[in-house]
Amino acid sequence: MPRVAYTNHDVNLIARMMRAEAVGEGRLGMLMVGNVIVNRARADCLDFQDLRSIREVVFQVQGGNYSFEAVQKGSLFYSPARGVEKKLAREVLKYWRKHPAKFALWYFNPSGECPPTWYGQPLTGQYKQHCYYEPIANTCESAYRY
Fold first, then answer.
1. What is the mean pLDDT of residues 76-82?
2. What H or E segment, with its residue span, contains residue 84?
3. Distance, CA of 74 to CA of 142 (rounded, Å)
4. How far, rounded to the nearest angstrom, does the alpha carbon of residue 86 sit from its chain's CA centroid?
5. pLDDT, position 114
6. Per residue in 33-49, pLDDT tens?
7. Closest C-alpha among 102, 136, 129, 133 to residue 113
8. Of the candidates 77, 47, 46, 74, which has an alpha carbon nearest to the alpha carbon of residue 63?
9. DSSP 3-state assignment of 86?
10. With contact defined as beta carbons under 8 Å apart, do 11 and 105 qualify?
């Protein structure tokens, strides 16, 4: 059973986002970015209440900007997904989860070291250039459900 309901269009969307956000970090980096997208679709809390589809997550607007910079600025995001990226997207949609992105709802690529918190949420770890943050447990129980 997949972690979230999805269509072939969703596979393409998440595959394009994974590539646009983390192609330089290889297979594992792209999977971690994809995992955050799926986590946001599953979480019903904080900034992600009422987001239930991959499309809603990818095109979410917060503070007047898209949540993912690649939607606004990324030419890679607007290129067709390749077969390998679609395969990774299906993995993450169906079952893939791994630390530090396992329960993460946020990531970013800082110019220096990862701060211990980001907007009050704790650092779970870093993979290559990206820092991953999960919600404080009692603020978002749904983020910790499979």
1. 94
2. helix 83-94
3. 30
4. 15
5. 97
6. 999 999 999 999 999 99
7. 129
8. 47
9. helix
10. no
Q: What are the tokens at 97? A: 């989860």
Helix (H, G, I), strand (E, B) or coil at 43: coil
Per-position DSSP letters for 121-142, written without gaps between them? EEEEEEETTEEEE---GGG-GG
Each residue of 97-131: pLDDT tens digit?
999 999 999 999 999 999 999 999 999 999 999 99
Q: What is the DSSP letter of 145?
A: -
Residue 100 backbone phi and psi in degrees, to 5 = -90, 5
Nearest to 34 by CA among 76, 96, 99, 100: 96
Q: How far apart are CA 37 and CA 29, in angstroms?
A: 13
126 vs 1, higher pLDDT: 126
Please count the residues of the chain: 146
Residue 31 token pair: 């999977």
Structure tokens of 59? 């095109």
Rounded Cα distance between 79 and 16, Å, is: 7
